[in-house]
Amino acid sequence: MTFGLVGLLLGVAMGAPEGGMAHSARIDHRSGTVQSDYTAKVQVTHRQVGAVGAGGRPSTLRCLWRAGLVVERQARHASGSMLARSFSHDEVIEGSRPGWCSAQRAAIAEEVASRNDALQARLVQLAQQDHAVLHAEVDRMHGTAQAG
């Protein structure tokens, strides 16, 4: 009996590592400087695959997991205007552990915590990718979009 369907329904959100993850950037725009602050929470999803072994047969149960980021951006334009945005990136790190997901959650959480550097690096990359979106939002807000 496979537990794939049950595993698809399993998922759990996990808080950011101690102290949280954050990144700040200053973006120069022709209408003024924009200070943007990014905070992220780690979200881990689990998927149970395989089958329990019957009558002395080995089990093929595995817990597949993925850790992603849910990012919140707060940006303040020099004029005092605020721009907020939320976005997520689901596949930052992933792994697999033998057995039931319910029995592996603590070990998975430890592994995710040990890879905090990779998560922080991805937050910085996501923030850099967001700069184009932020520029467009400031253009719309201040009516400074270039024609033609």
Walk me through the structure.
The chain is of the alpha+beta class. The chain is built from 3 helices and 5 strands; from the N terminus they run αβββββαα. Strands 1, 2, 3, 4 and 5 form a 5-stranded antiparallel β-sheet that branches. Strand 2 (21-29) and strand 3 form a beta hairpin.
SS strand fraction: 35-45%
Q: Sheet with the most strands?
A: 5 strands, antiparallel
Give me the oligomer status.
single chain
Q: How would you classify the helix and strand content by structural class?
A: alpha+beta
Shape: elongated
Spatial separation of the terminal alpha carbons: 61 Å
- Overall mean pLDDT score? 81
SSE string, helix = H, strand = E?
Answer: HEEEEEHH
Provide the helix percentage.
Answer: 25-40%
The total of helices stands at 3
Q: Which ranges are low-confidence, i.e. pLDDT below 50, for 5 or more consecutive residues?
A: 1-19
What's the gyration radius in Å? 21 Å
Number of DSSP strand runs? 5
Short recap of the structure:
The chain has 148 residues and is α+β, with helices and mostly antiparallel strands.
Topology:
Elements lengths: L3 H6 L2 E2 L7 E9 L2 E18 L12 E16 L4 E17 L2 H14 L1 H27 L6
Antiparallel strand pairs: 1-3, 2-3, 3-4, 4-5
